[in-house]
Fold this sequence. Notes:
heterodimer; B: 9 helices; 10 strands
Amino acid sequence: xxxxxxxxxxxxVVVSGxxxxxxxxxxxxxxxxxxxxxxxxxxxxxxxxxxxxxxxRLLFVHTGLPGSLGWVTAMVLIAGRVAGRRGRGVPRxxxxxxxxxxxxxxxxxxxxxxxxxxxxxxxxxxxxGGMVVSTAMxxxxxxxxxxxxxxxxxxxxVEARLALGRSGAAAFAPHVRAALRTALTPAIDNTKVxxxxxxxxxxxxxxxxxxxxxxxxxxxxxxxxxxxGAVSLSAAVTAALARRTxxxxxxxxxxxxxxxxxxxxxxxxxxxx
Amino acid sequence: MPRPIFTLxxxxxxxxxxxxxxxxxxxxxxxxRPGRCTGLVGPSGAGKTTLLRLLNRMEEPAAGRVxxxxxxxxxxxxRELRRRxxxxxxxxxxxxxxxxxxxxxxxxxxxxxxxxxxxxxxGLPPAFAGRGSASLSGGEGQRVCxxxxxxxxxxxxxxxxxxxxxxxxxxxxxxxxxxxxxGAGLTVVLVSHDxxxxxxxxxxxxxxVAGAVVAAGPAAAVFAEPGHAAAAAxxxxxx
Lengths: 273, 239
């Protein structure tokens, strides 16, 4: 039935490079000054993927589950940095985002592995962990982004509630709800349309690897539920922790902290480029 | 003379990054007497609002002491304190769908009769209870904010330029309500940049210039004899 290999050979990879060559020809002929970038992108993609492949092989073969969990932990820390930056102004936003992502990831992956729904093997934990981390990161980032906006635009409302003797938690609740709505909407929409306007990665990969579609979708259903759980937990924990750092002991909404020096120097660099 | 309801001694407030345009308060001392209207006046950015916000702990002093009934503010549960010391902001800030829901934010179990009573105290008919908050004019909104603050039965009402966002007619109506509340025995602390308004409403006057109290005392006495060059300059410059 099939006339080619299930997975391309190295020769196949080299031949597919001709297609990247087409891109190069197009940009050179169109004189849009992108030839250099295309060349760099083509080489970078290959180098990065070879490196990741080698690293994953190392993890799977030599370090086993502990190494994989270390890998997932590193992803969580990176995701916390990225999401934390979105909440600039929120006190301790990096710690808050990292904790949110960590809880979302630990709970969902923990349940799936603990209940034996997915295998506790490195070749499962690492890619599934990656999916969960990136989704949880989006949840934490959107939550912080919106909360910081809410503090900027909603201070009067919060203070009006505080002045009536409400607690910080009660005074901030409508703003937390707005942030959670923002953070969860993309994940809910993705879950709604899965299979209709997108054939998601896990399922596509399994089908490519020869797994029958009705088996592949079982995996995808688990993935979708897992991502929904992860983003909800991540957003909820991030919002709860951010709310705590945003109010002081006397139930006062703190001022947003000014840009950190790191962020400022980045901006300068971008401007001078 | 009754004991002051608020006593401030050597209060210093340093400024946060968002409020650089406002003067810090430097070693401010002040007494607020019960059952009277104390007017805080001075040029904009002088620190009047900061001073007001110290009284319900929306602002914390870096140094010095703020006492309520002779006890440091920090001795009180902050939520209980804020229920006893109400605040109405400069711009009406409406939070709920309807006026009745607005009045119940600080006191969820308020009866319909109590809602009608509160509306009456701010000169609004009982039918306003069902009005949507979004449909109110600025003056109506500010009166609802006053009623909302009164709903928690405060012993002091802090007013931060309550009429500055209103037209003349609405401002006059709010002023009348404030005068009635003071007449009924409520202690009011009023921030105003309108010296004539302060003259009409305030029993005691506190002049704040560049983060310092430069004159304080019974309003008539302060107007007659400011006693401090900066106070005199301000009072003459505006009137």
